[in-house]
Specification:
Strand content: 15-25%
Helix content: 25-40%
Number of helices: 4
Strand order of the largest sheet: 1-2-6
Shape: globular
Largest sheet: 3 strands, mixed
Structural class: alpha+beta
């Protein structure tokens, strides 16, 4: 992984950005059964900063969206790697009934480019407690919202 990073990187920043692989992605659940995707901190921090740059809130609704991240860019490639790893991940052990159905449905959405799981950097995740590690201190490692493939597969947008 290459890690030369600018202070406030964007996809137009002239630096070498790291390349995420499926092996870098871990899918787990929190203690409430919600799925969490854990990635190396360098990716989580970059993704959080990039998705927040140009974020648009929808007034009166607890929702918003990022700008588009077109195919060929770092955000598109990184997001596609995360979503593909999520789609290929096994359903959490011990899941039955409604929970198993929900996890299967999430994998089907991911196969079509949508990731409905939290994305966080490794230092922001406590695997033993299955919960966020010191959220106020690590909130910069929590990627804002969920990725959605748009424009007939030509771009990603984060929303939620």
């Amino acid at each position: 992984m290459t890690t030369a990073i600018a202070t406030r990187p964007t996809e137009q920043t002239a630096v070498i950005l790291p390349t995420l692989t499926a092996a870098d992605v871990t899918v787990t659940t929190d203690h409430m059964g919600r799925e969490v995707i854990v990635i190396p901190d360098v990716f989580a921090r970059l993704m959080r900063d990039i998705t927040r740059d140009g974020w648009r809130e929808f007034p009166g609704v607890a929702d918003g969206e990022s700008r588009k991240f077109p195919a060929g860019g770092w955000m598109f490639r990184t997001t596609a790697t995360i979503v593909a790893a999520y789609a290929a991940s096994p359903i959490p052990a011990g899941a039955t009934g409604h929970d198993a159905d929900r996890y299967r449905q999430s994998r089907q959405y991911a196969e079509h480019g949508c990731g409905y799981a939290f994305i966080v950097g490794a230092a922001g995740w406590d695997a033993d407690a299955r919960w966020w590690r010191d959220y106020p201190l690590t909130k910069g490692l929590h990627v804002h919202a969920s990725p959605h493939l748009i424009d007939k597969g030509r771009a990603y947008r984060f929303s939620g």
